[in-house]
Amino acid sequence: MTYLIVLACLVLVPFVLIMALRSHGSIVFLSLCLGSVLATLVAPDMTDVVSAMTRGNALVTLQWSQIGLLTAPFLLATLFTKGAIRGGKQLLNGLNAFASGTLFALLLTPYLSPTWQAGIKQQGLWHQLDNLQTAILIAGAIISLLFLLMTRSRQKIEKKH
């Protein structure tokens, strides 16, 4: 039961945070994709540098580096785009926020300790999310790109008289 609550929090906390701050869900979703790339490609090199300077456990350093590199772009995008969404765009932004929350849970879980991973991966909700991972990623990307096109600023064309 505890792991189900943790998994639900991994999905719902990002959703609630994006909606409460009225952050731009598309940018947050795409920043999670960036964080995933950083966690995959940069974390091993970062771990080598940190391990060379300290006597810490390299595996623990790698785990925390991956978690930090995944969550930092998400948190920064959420804070930097605070208040960007107003009015009728909240519903579509809610779809982006939900895609961001589910993607966050899917991406973060493999970086948790083996005990937490095993507990979360035994949950029925995890199996549903894992089976829908491709659909969540594709739908989130399409919605994000369409939403970015809808909300881009248009330059005003001044007429000469």
Q: Can you characterise this structure?
A:
- By secondary structure, this protein is mainly α.
- The chain has one domain.
- Helices cover 78% and strands 0% of the residues.
- The chain is built from eight helices and no strands.
- Helix 1 (2-21) packs antiparallel against helix 5 (90-108), helix 2 (25-41) packs antiparallel against helix 4 (58-80) and helix 2 (25-41) packs parallel to helix 5.
- The mean pLDDT is 88.
Give the gist of this structure.
This protein is an all-alpha fold and 161 residues long.
Return residue spans where pLDDT drops below 50 for at least 5 consecutive residues. none
Percent strand = under 5%
Helix content: over 70%
The backbone outline, from C-alpha atoms, is globular
Query: Helix count, per DSSP?
Result: 8
State the secondary-structure class: mainly alpha
The biggest beta sheet is recorded as: none
Question: What is the gyration radius calculated from CA atoms?
Answer: 18 Å
Average of pLDDT: 88
Tell me the count of domains.
Answer: 1
Q: What is the strand tally?
A: 0
> How would you spell out the order of helices and strands?
HHHHHHHH
Ends distance = 70 Å
